[in-house]
Amino acid sequence: MVKICCIGAGYVGGPTMAVIALKCPSIEVAVVDISVARIAAWNSDQLPIYEPGLDDVVKQRRGKNLFFSTEVEKHVSEADIIFVSVNTPTKTRGLGAGKAADLTYWESAARMIADVSKNDKIVVEKSTVPVKTAEAIEKILSHNSKGINYQILSNPEFLAEGTAIQDLFNPDRVLIGGRDTPEGQKAIHALKQVYAHWVPEDRIICTNLWSAELSKLAANAFLAQRISSVNAMSALCEATGADVTQVSNAVGKDTRIGPKFLNASVGFGGSCFQKDILNLVYICECNGLKEVANYWKQVIQVNDYQKNRFVNRMVSSMFNTVSGKKVAILGFAFKKDTGDTRETPAIDVCKGLLGDNAHLSIYDPQVTEDQITKDLSMKKFDWDHPTHLQPMSPFAVKQVNVVWDAYEATKDAHGVCILTEWDEFKTLDFKKIYDTMQKPAFVFDGRNVVDAEKLREIGFIVYSIGKPLDAWLKDMPALA
Protein backbone atom coordinates (compact mmCIF):
# COMPACT_ATOMS: atom_id res chain seq x y z
CA MET A 1 0.00 0.00 0.00
CA VAL A 2 1.30 3.46 -0.96
CA LYS A 3 1.59 5.71 2.08
CA ILE A 4 1.21 9.47 1.94
CA CYS A 5 2.05 11.81 4.81
CA CYS A 6 1.21 15.51 4.89
CA ILE A 7 3.11 17.76 7.30
CA GLY A 8 0.73 20.54 8.30
CA ALA A 9 -2.96 20.14 9.17
CA GLY A 10 -4.14 23.56 8.03
CA TYR A 11 -6.43 24.98 5.35
CA VAL A 12 -4.51 23.28 2.54
CA GLY A 13 -3.23 20.05 4.09
CA GLY A 14 -6.44 18.91 5.81
CA PRO A 15 -8.95 19.24 2.93
CA THR A 16 -6.48 18.11 0.23
CA MET A 17 -5.54 14.94 2.07
CA ALA A 18 -9.16 14.19 2.97
CA VAL A 19 -10.13 14.25 -0.71
CA ILE A 20 -7.11 12.13 -1.72
CA ALA A 21 -8.13 9.58 0.93
CA LEU A 22 -11.72 9.59 -0.38
CA LYS A 23 -10.74 9.22 -4.04
CA CYS A 24 -7.89 6.76 -3.42
CA PRO A 25 -9.12 4.16 -0.89
CA SER A 26 -6.05 1.99 -1.60
CA ILE A 27 -3.70 4.73 -0.35
CA GLU A 28 -3.09 5.33 3.35
CA VAL A 29 -3.06 9.05 4.15
CA ALA A 30 -1.74 10.54 7.39
CA VAL A 31 -1.99 14.26 8.24
CA VAL A 32 0.48 15.24 10.95
CA ASP A 33 0.97 18.43 12.96
CA ILE A 34 2.75 19.37 16.18
CA SER A 35 -0.38 21.19 17.40
CA VAL A 36 -2.15 18.79 19.75
CA ALA A 37 -5.29 20.96 19.79
CA ARG A 38 -5.51 21.10 16.00
CA ILE A 39 -5.14 17.34 15.56
CA ALA A 40 -7.67 16.76 18.35
CA ALA A 41 -10.12 18.98 16.45
CA TRP A 42 -9.57 17.02 13.21
CA ASN A 43 -10.40 13.84 15.15
CA SER A 44 -13.54 15.37 16.70
CA ASP A 45 -17.03 16.27 15.47
CA GLN A 46 -16.03 19.95 15.34
CA LEU A 47 -13.35 20.29 12.65
CA PRO A 48 -10.84 23.16 13.07
CA ILE A 49 -11.87 24.81 9.82
CA TYR A 50 -15.23 25.47 8.18
CA GLU A 51 -15.50 24.51 4.53
CA PRO A 52 -18.73 23.35 2.84
CA GLY A 53 -18.61 19.57 2.26
CA LEU A 54 -15.43 18.98 4.26
CA ASP A 55 -17.21 17.46 7.25
CA ASP A 56 -18.76 14.73 5.14
CA VAL A 57 -15.52 13.84 3.35
CA VAL A 58 -13.51 13.57 6.58
CA LYS A 59 -16.13 11.46 8.34
CA GLN A 60 -16.33 9.03 5.41
CA ARG A 61 -12.62 8.17 5.48
CA ARG A 62 -11.32 9.01 8.99
CA GLY A 63 -10.09 5.88 10.76
CA LYS A 64 -10.15 3.87 7.50
CA ASN A 65 -7.39 5.26 5.31
CA LEU A 66 -7.30 8.84 6.66
CA PHE A 67 -5.53 9.52 9.96
CA PHE A 68 -4.75 12.71 11.87
CA SER A 69 -1.79 12.40 14.24
CA THR A 70 0.84 14.27 16.26
CA GLU A 71 3.31 11.41 15.69
CA VAL A 72 5.08 13.42 13.03
CA GLU A 73 8.36 11.49 12.79
CA LYS A 74 6.69 8.05 12.74
CA HIS A 75 4.42 8.88 9.78
CA VAL A 76 7.13 10.78 7.89
CA SER A 77 9.47 7.82 8.27
CA GLU A 78 6.85 5.38 6.92
CA ALA A 79 5.63 7.51 3.99
CA ASP A 80 6.51 7.08 0.31
CA ILE A 81 5.24 10.55 -0.63
CA ILE A 82 5.50 13.47 1.81
CA PHE A 83 3.48 16.62 1.21
CA VAL A 84 4.84 19.65 3.05
CA SER A 85 2.14 22.19 3.82
CA VAL A 86 3.70 24.34 6.53
CA ASN A 87 3.49 28.09 7.13
CA THR A 88 5.53 30.40 4.90
CA PRO A 89 4.97 33.79 6.58
CA THR A 90 6.28 37.09 5.27
CA LYS A 91 9.54 38.05 6.97
CA THR A 92 9.20 40.85 9.51
CA ARG A 93 12.92 41.46 10.05
CA GLY A 94 16.25 41.03 8.31
CA LEU A 95 16.89 40.67 4.58
CA GLY A 96 13.68 41.06 2.58
CA ALA A 97 11.57 42.13 5.59
CA GLY A 98 8.00 42.94 4.60
CA LYS A 99 8.25 41.09 1.26
CA ALA A 100 10.29 37.88 1.29
CA ALA A 101 8.90 34.58 2.56
CA ASP A 102 10.27 33.22 5.82
CA LEU A 103 11.25 29.61 5.12
CA THR A 104 12.10 28.72 8.72
CA TYR A 105 9.30 26.16 9.00
CA TRP A 106 10.06 24.67 5.59
CA GLU A 107 13.74 24.26 6.42
CA SER A 108 12.87 22.67 9.76
CA ALA A 109 10.55 20.21 8.01
CA ALA A 110 13.23 19.30 5.46
CA ARG A 111 15.84 18.65 8.16
CA MET A 112 13.38 16.47 10.09
CA ILE A 113 12.60 14.46 6.93
CA ALA A 114 16.34 13.88 6.43
CA ASP A 115 16.75 12.82 10.07
CA VAL A 116 14.02 10.18 10.18
CA SER A 117 13.94 8.77 6.64
CA LYS A 118 15.08 5.21 6.04
CA ASN A 119 14.02 4.78 2.40
CA ASP A 120 13.73 6.87 -0.78
CA LYS A 121 11.06 9.59 -0.66
CA ILE A 122 9.18 11.95 -2.92
CA VAL A 123 8.87 15.32 -1.17
CA VAL A 124 6.10 17.56 -2.48
CA GLU A 125 5.89 21.34 -1.96
CA LYS A 126 2.25 22.03 -1.20
CA SER A 127 2.59 25.39 0.59
CA THR A 128 2.88 28.51 -1.52
CA VAL A 129 6.62 29.04 -1.70
CA PRO A 130 8.95 31.45 -3.48
CA VAL A 131 10.63 30.39 -6.70
CA LYS A 132 13.75 28.26 -6.14
CA THR A 133 12.59 26.94 -2.76
CA ALA A 134 12.78 23.41 -4.17
CA GLU A 135 16.45 23.98 -4.95
CA ALA A 136 17.13 24.96 -1.32
CA ILE A 137 15.21 21.95 -0.01
CA GLU A 138 17.12 19.67 -2.39
CA LYS A 139 20.39 20.94 -0.99
CA ILE A 140 19.34 20.30 2.62
CA LEU A 141 18.13 16.79 1.81
CA SER A 142 21.06 15.84 -0.43
CA HIS A 143 23.63 17.00 2.15
CA ASN A 144 21.92 14.91 4.81
CA SER A 145 20.91 12.01 2.60
CA LYS A 146 22.68 9.05 4.27
CA GLY A 147 22.46 7.33 0.90
CA ILE A 148 18.71 7.97 0.57
CA ASN A 149 17.40 9.44 -2.68
CA TYR A 150 14.91 12.32 -2.54
CA GLN A 151 12.95 13.76 -5.42
CA ILE A 152 11.43 17.21 -4.91
CA LEU A 153 8.18 18.10 -6.66
CA SER A 154 6.19 21.32 -6.70
CA ASN A 155 2.42 20.77 -6.57
CA PRO A 156 0.87 24.17 -5.74
CA GLU A 157 -2.74 24.37 -4.58
CA PHE A 158 -5.31 26.46 -6.42
CA LEU A 159 -8.14 26.25 -3.90
CA ALA A 160 -10.69 29.00 -3.38
CA GLU A 161 -11.96 29.09 0.17
CA GLY A 162 -15.67 28.47 0.40
CA THR A 163 -15.45 26.11 -2.60
CA ALA A 164 -12.29 24.17 -1.69
CA ILE A 165 -13.87 20.70 -1.67
CA GLN A 166 -15.56 21.31 -5.00
CA ASP A 167 -12.26 22.68 -6.37
CA LEU A 168 -10.51 19.49 -5.23
CA PHE A 169 -13.20 17.23 -6.69
CA ASN A 170 -13.22 19.03 -10.02
CA PRO A 171 -10.02 21.08 -10.44
CA ASP A 172 -9.33 23.39 -13.40
CA ARG A 173 -5.86 21.92 -13.42
CA VAL A 174 -3.40 20.00 -11.27
CA LEU A 175 0.12 21.32 -11.65
CA ILE A 176 3.15 19.11 -10.97
CA GLY A 177 6.69 20.43 -11.41
CA GLY A 178 9.80 18.30 -11.19
CA ARG A 179 13.33 17.75 -12.46
CA ASP A 180 13.88 16.83 -16.10
CA THR A 181 15.85 13.71 -15.16
CA PRO A 182 14.79 10.04 -15.29
CA GLU A 183 14.36 10.06 -11.49
CA GLY A 184 12.49 13.36 -11.58
CA GLN A 185 10.13 12.19 -14.32
CA LYS A 186 9.48 8.95 -12.43
CA ALA A 187 8.52 10.99 -9.34
CA ILE A 188 6.20 13.20 -11.42
CA HIS A 189 4.56 10.06 -12.81
CA ALA A 190 4.06 8.63 -9.30
CA LEU A 191 2.24 11.76 -8.09
CA LYS A 192 0.32 12.01 -11.36
CA GLN A 193 -1.01 8.48 -10.74
CA VAL A 194 -2.46 9.59 -7.39
CA TYR A 195 -4.46 12.43 -8.97
CA ALA A 196 -5.39 10.29 -12.00
CA HIS A 197 -7.77 8.35 -9.74
CA TRP A 198 -10.29 11.15 -10.34
CA VAL A 199 -8.74 13.99 -12.39
CA PRO A 200 -8.80 13.68 -16.22
CA GLU A 201 -5.30 13.34 -17.61
CA ASP A 202 -5.57 16.44 -19.80
CA ARG A 203 -6.02 18.56 -16.65
CA ILE A 204 -2.78 17.31 -15.06
CA ILE A 205 -0.05 19.67 -16.25
CA CYS A 206 3.60 18.67 -15.83
CA THR A 207 6.33 21.35 -15.92
CA ASN A 208 9.79 22.01 -14.56
CA LEU A 209 10.13 22.96 -10.89
CA TRP A 210 10.56 26.68 -11.39
CA SER A 211 7.58 27.03 -13.74
CA ALA A 212 5.30 25.29 -11.22
CA GLU A 213 6.47 27.51 -8.35
CA LEU A 214 6.13 30.70 -10.37
CA SER A 215 2.75 29.70 -11.84
CA LYS A 216 1.20 29.75 -8.37
CA LEU A 217 2.49 33.27 -7.62
CA ALA A 218 1.50 34.45 -11.10
CA ALA A 219 -2.06 33.08 -10.84
CA ASN A 220 -2.71 34.84 -7.52
CA ALA A 221 -1.08 38.05 -8.75
CA PHE A 222 -3.29 38.09 -11.88
CA LEU A 223 -6.47 37.53 -9.83
CA ALA A 224 -5.55 40.21 -7.28
CA GLN A 225 -4.69 42.57 -10.13
CA ARG A 226 -8.22 42.21 -11.54
CA ILE A 227 -9.73 43.09 -8.16
CA SER A 228 -7.47 46.12 -7.76
CA SER A 229 -8.32 47.17 -11.33
CA VAL A 230 -12.07 47.14 -10.73
CA ASN A 231 -11.61 48.79 -7.33
CA ALA A 232 -9.61 51.58 -8.96
CA MET A 233 -12.51 51.98 -11.39
CA SER A 234 -14.97 52.10 -8.46
CA ALA A 235 -13.29 55.27 -7.17
CA LEU A 236 -13.60 56.84 -10.61
CA CYS A 237 -17.25 55.76 -10.85
CA GLU A 238 -18.08 57.52 -7.60
CA ALA A 239 -16.32 60.66 -8.80
CA THR A 240 -18.16 60.73 -12.14
CA GLY A 241 -21.60 59.29 -11.31
CA ALA A 242 -21.03 56.03 -13.17
CA ASP A 243 -22.14 52.68 -11.67
CA VAL A 244 -19.30 50.20 -11.24
CA THR A 245 -21.70 47.22 -11.50
CA GLN A 246 -22.80 48.38 -14.94
CA VAL A 247 -19.21 49.09 -15.99
CA SER A 248 -18.07 45.64 -14.78
CA ASN A 249 -20.93 43.96 -16.62
CA ALA A 250 -20.08 45.75 -19.87
CA VAL A 251 -16.35 44.99 -19.54
CA GLY A 252 -16.95 41.36 -18.52
CA LYS A 253 -19.01 40.69 -21.66
CA ASP A 254 -15.79 41.01 -23.64
CA THR A 255 -14.81 37.35 -24.11
CA ARG A 256 -11.13 38.30 -23.95
CA ILE A 257 -11.66 39.61 -20.40
CA GLY A 258 -14.55 37.58 -18.96
CA PRO A 259 -16.78 38.37 -15.96
CA LYS A 260 -14.95 36.74 -13.03
CA PHE A 261 -13.23 38.74 -10.28
CA LEU A 262 -14.79 42.02 -11.45
CA ASN A 263 -16.91 42.75 -8.38
CA ALA A 264 -15.89 45.99 -6.68
CA SER A 265 -15.44 45.70 -2.92
CA VAL A 266 -13.70 47.13 0.10
CA GLY A 267 -10.61 45.15 -0.94
CA PHE A 268 -9.22 41.64 -1.32
CA GLY A 269 -8.07 39.46 1.57
CA GLY A 270 -7.17 35.84 2.19
CA SER A 271 -3.97 34.03 2.99
CA CYS A 272 -2.34 34.22 -0.44
CA PHE A 273 -2.95 37.31 -2.53
CA GLN A 274 -0.97 39.93 -0.64
CA LYS A 275 1.71 37.48 0.51
CA ASP A 276 2.29 36.07 -2.96
CA ILE A 277 2.47 39.49 -4.60
CA LEU A 278 4.97 40.72 -2.00
CA ASN A 279 6.96 37.58 -2.72
CA LEU A 280 6.80 38.30 -6.44
CA VAL A 281 7.95 41.87 -5.82
CA TYR A 282 10.93 40.62 -3.81
CA ILE A 283 11.94 38.09 -6.47
CA CYS A 284 11.73 40.79 -9.16
CA GLU A 285 13.86 43.16 -7.07
CA CYS A 286 16.44 40.44 -6.43
CA ASN A 287 16.69 39.87 -10.17
CA GLY A 288 17.12 43.58 -10.91
CA LEU A 289 13.64 43.96 -12.41
CA LYS A 290 12.73 47.22 -10.67
CA GLU A 291 9.97 48.27 -13.10
CA VAL A 292 8.30 44.86 -12.91
CA ALA A 293 8.49 44.95 -9.11
CA ASN A 294 6.87 48.42 -9.05
CA TYR A 295 4.09 47.22 -11.34
CA TRP A 296 3.06 44.42 -8.95
CA LYS A 297 3.59 46.62 -5.89
CA GLN A 298 0.87 48.92 -7.23
CA VAL A 299 -1.70 46.10 -6.96
CA ILE A 300 -1.13 46.04 -3.18
CA GLN A 301 -1.12 49.84 -2.96
CA VAL A 302 -4.52 50.12 -4.67
CA ASN A 303 -5.90 47.49 -2.27
CA ASP A 304 -4.67 49.49 0.73
CA TYR A 305 -6.03 52.69 -0.84
CA GLN A 306 -9.47 51.10 -1.23
CA LYS A 307 -9.66 50.15 2.46
CA ASN A 308 -8.47 53.61 3.56
CA ARG A 309 -10.93 55.27 1.18
CA PHE A 310 -13.81 53.25 2.66
CA VAL A 311 -12.93 54.22 6.24
CA ASN A 312 -12.49 57.87 5.26
CA ARG A 313 -15.86 57.85 3.52
CA MET A 314 -17.52 56.47 6.67
CA VAL A 315 -15.92 59.00 9.00
CA SER A 316 -16.51 62.01 6.74
CA SER A 317 -20.17 61.03 6.16
CA MET A 318 -20.86 60.78 9.87
CA PHE A 319 -20.04 64.43 10.57
CA ASN A 320 -16.28 63.85 10.31
CA THR A 321 -16.05 61.80 13.49
CA VAL A 322 -17.06 58.37 14.77
CA SER A 323 -15.68 58.99 18.25
CA GLY A 324 -17.98 57.42 20.84
CA LYS A 325 -20.42 56.25 18.16
CA LYS A 326 -21.57 52.66 17.84
CA VAL A 327 -20.83 51.16 14.43
CA ALA A 328 -22.20 47.70 13.52
CA ILE A 329 -19.78 45.53 11.54
CA LEU A 330 -21.60 42.82 9.58
CA GLY A 331 -19.11 40.21 8.42
CA PHE A 332 -15.49 39.71 9.46
CA ALA A 333 -14.34 36.75 7.32
CA PHE A 334 -12.55 37.80 4.14
CA LYS A 335 -15.36 36.30 2.03
CA LYS A 336 -18.57 34.33 2.49
CA ASP A 337 -18.73 30.58 3.17
CA THR A 338 -15.50 30.49 5.15
CA GLY A 339 -14.51 31.31 8.69
CA ASP A 340 -11.06 32.41 7.51
CA THR A 341 -10.00 35.89 8.57
CA ARG A 342 -6.43 35.92 7.26
CA GLU A 343 -5.69 39.36 5.73
CA THR A 344 -9.42 40.14 5.77
CA PRO A 345 -10.13 43.79 4.86
CA ALA A 346 -12.32 43.91 7.98
CA ILE A 347 -9.19 44.06 10.15
CA ASP A 348 -7.94 47.29 8.57
CA VAL A 349 -11.41 48.83 8.43
CA CYS A 350 -12.05 48.04 12.11
CA LYS A 351 -8.62 49.32 13.13
CA GLY A 352 -9.25 52.51 11.16
CA LEU A 353 -12.56 53.09 12.96
CA LEU A 354 -11.06 52.22 16.35
CA GLY A 355 -8.32 54.75 15.61
CA ASP A 356 -11.06 57.38 15.56
CA ASN A 357 -12.48 55.99 18.83
CA ALA A 358 -15.56 54.26 17.45
CA HIS A 359 -17.38 51.55 19.42
CA LEU A 360 -17.72 48.44 17.27
CA SER A 361 -20.37 45.74 17.50
CA ILE A 362 -19.26 42.85 15.26
CA TYR A 363 -21.29 39.94 13.89
CA ASP A 364 -20.09 37.15 11.61
CA PRO A 365 -21.87 33.79 11.40
CA GLN A 366 -18.63 31.77 11.25
CA VAL A 367 -15.92 33.76 13.07
CA THR A 368 -15.48 33.38 16.84
CA GLU A 369 -15.00 36.17 19.32
CA ASP A 370 -11.53 34.81 20.18
CA GLN A 371 -10.48 34.97 16.54
CA ILE A 372 -11.78 38.54 16.08
CA THR A 373 -10.05 39.69 19.28
CA LYS A 374 -6.82 38.02 18.24
CA ASP A 375 -6.93 39.54 14.73
CA LEU A 376 -7.51 43.05 16.04
CA SER A 377 -4.64 42.80 18.53
CA MET A 378 -2.06 41.07 16.32
CA LYS A 379 0.75 42.75 14.42
CA LYS A 380 0.82 42.54 10.64
CA PHE A 381 2.04 39.13 9.33
CA ASP A 382 1.79 37.47 12.79
CA TRP A 383 -1.26 35.51 11.57
CA ASP A 384 0.90 33.35 9.30
CA HIS A 385 2.94 31.74 12.05
CA PRO A 386 1.80 28.45 13.63
CA THR A 387 -0.91 29.00 16.25
CA HIS A 388 1.37 28.19 19.17
CA LEU A 389 3.74 30.98 18.10
CA GLN A 390 1.00 33.60 17.81
CA PRO A 391 0.09 35.82 20.77
CA MET A 392 -1.48 33.36 23.23
CA SER A 393 -3.73 35.66 25.26
CA PRO A 394 -4.66 38.65 23.14
CA PHE A 395 -5.66 41.69 25.13
CA ALA A 396 -9.35 42.35 24.85
CA VAL A 397 -9.72 45.25 22.45
CA LYS A 398 -11.64 48.00 24.22
CA GLN A 399 -14.58 49.43 22.32
CA VAL A 400 -15.25 46.07 20.59
CA ASN A 401 -18.24 43.86 21.33
CA VAL A 402 -18.72 40.60 19.40
CA VAL A 403 -22.34 39.42 19.13
CA TRP A 404 -24.12 36.47 17.51
CA ASP A 405 -27.04 38.26 15.90
CA ALA A 406 -27.16 40.96 13.22
CA TYR A 407 -30.07 42.74 14.91
CA GLU A 408 -28.19 42.87 18.21
CA ALA A 409 -25.17 44.31 16.40
CA THR A 410 -27.19 47.07 14.74
CA LYS A 411 -29.35 48.09 17.73
CA ASP A 412 -28.64 51.75 18.71
CA ALA A 413 -25.89 51.96 16.08
CA HIS A 414 -25.17 55.15 14.16
CA GLY A 415 -23.94 53.22 11.14
CA VAL A 416 -23.96 49.70 9.65
CA CYS A 417 -20.89 48.53 7.77
CA ILE A 418 -21.14 45.38 5.57
CA LEU A 419 -17.72 43.80 5.04
CA THR A 420 -18.51 40.19 4.01
CA GLU A 421 -21.02 39.15 1.36
CA TRP A 422 -22.84 36.55 3.49
CA ASP A 423 -26.17 35.67 1.82
CA GLU A 424 -28.10 36.32 5.04
CA PHE A 425 -27.21 40.02 4.89
CA LYS A 426 -29.25 40.35 1.67
CA THR A 427 -32.43 39.23 3.43
CA LEU A 428 -32.20 41.16 6.70
CA ASP A 429 -35.25 43.18 7.77
CA PHE A 430 -33.72 46.61 7.25
CA LYS A 431 -36.93 48.39 8.31
CA LYS A 432 -36.59 46.67 11.69
CA ILE A 433 -32.90 47.63 11.81
CA TYR A 434 -33.66 51.26 10.87
CA ASP A 435 -36.25 51.59 13.62
CA THR A 436 -33.71 50.60 16.32
CA MET A 437 -30.81 52.77 15.07
CA GLN A 438 -29.70 56.30 15.91
CA LYS A 439 -30.71 58.88 13.28
CA PRO A 440 -29.55 59.77 10.75
CA ALA A 441 -28.92 56.06 10.08
CA PHE A 442 -26.08 55.11 7.72
CA VAL A 443 -25.35 51.94 5.74
CA PHE A 444 -21.87 51.51 4.26
CA ASP A 445 -21.95 48.56 1.88
CA GLY A 446 -18.42 47.32 1.22
CA ARG A 447 -19.63 44.37 -0.86
CA ASN A 448 -22.58 45.81 -2.82
CA VAL A 449 -24.98 43.23 -1.39
CA VAL A 450 -27.97 45.45 -0.50
CA ASP A 451 -30.48 47.28 -2.67
CA ALA A 452 -29.41 50.86 -2.01
CA GLU A 453 -32.59 52.41 -3.42
CA LYS A 454 -34.87 50.33 -1.18
CA LEU A 455 -32.78 51.27 1.85
CA ARG A 456 -32.98 54.95 0.92
CA GLU A 457 -36.77 54.65 0.74
CA ILE A 458 -36.71 53.32 4.32
CA GLY A 459 -34.71 56.39 5.36
CA PHE A 460 -31.08 55.24 5.35
CA ILE A 461 -28.19 57.25 3.99
CA VAL A 462 -26.42 54.63 1.87
CA TYR A 463 -22.88 54.40 0.54
CA SER A 464 -22.21 51.55 -1.88
CA ILE A 465 -18.74 51.04 -3.36
CA GLY A 466 -18.52 52.42 -6.89
CA LYS A 467 -22.19 53.51 -7.09
CA PRO A 468 -23.54 57.04 -7.71
CA LEU A 469 -23.42 59.01 -4.48
CA ASP A 470 -26.54 60.44 -2.90
CA ALA A 471 -26.67 64.15 -2.09
CA TRP A 472 -25.58 63.71 1.54
CA LEU A 473 -22.36 61.95 0.54
CA LYS A 474 -21.60 64.40 -2.25
CA ASP A 475 -21.66 67.21 0.28
CA MET A 476 -19.14 65.37 2.49
CA PRO A 477 -16.33 64.14 0.21
CA ALA A 478 -13.99 61.46 1.49
CA LEU A 479 -10.36 62.48 1.69
CA ALA A 480 -8.20 59.47 0.79
UniProtKB/TrEMBL annotation:
EC number annotated for this UniProt entry: 1.1.1.22
Lineage, broadest ranks: Eukaryota, Viridiplantae, Streptophyta, Embryophyta, Tracheophyta
Protein family according to the UniProt entry: Belongs to the UDP-glucose/GDP-mannose dehydrogenase family.
GO MF, one example: UDP-glucose 6-dehydrogenase activity
Record pathway: Nucleotide-sugar biosynthesis; UDP-alpha-D-glucuronate biosynthesis; UDP-alpha-D-glucuronate from UDP-alpha-D-glucose: step 1/1
InterPro entries assigned: 6-PGluconate_DH-like_C_sf (IPR008927), NAD(P)-bd_dom_sf (IPR036291), UDP-Glc/GDP-Man (IPR017476), UDP-Glc/GDP-Man_DH_C (IPR014027), UDP-Glc/GDP-Man_DH_C_sf (IPR036220), UDP-Glc/GDP-Man_DH_dimer (IPR014026), UDP-Glc/GDP-Man_DH_N (IPR001732), UDPglc_DH_euk (IPR028356)
This protein's record includes keyword NAD: yes
Keywords: NAD, Oxidoreductase
Underlying gene: LOC107783103
Taxonomy, superkingdom: Eukaryota
Substrates-to-products reaction catalysed: UDP-alpha-D-glucose + 2 NAD(+) + H2O = UDP-alpha-D-glucuronate + 2 NADH + 3 H(+)
Catalytic residues (positions): C272
GO cellular component: nucleus
Gene Ontology BP term (one): UDP-glucuronate biosynthetic process
Protein name, per record: UDP-glucose 6-dehydrogenase
Positions contributing to NAD(+) binding: 8-13, 33, 38, 86-90, 127-128, 161, 272-275, 342
Domain UDP-glucose/GDP-mannose dehydrogenase C-terminal intervals: 328-452
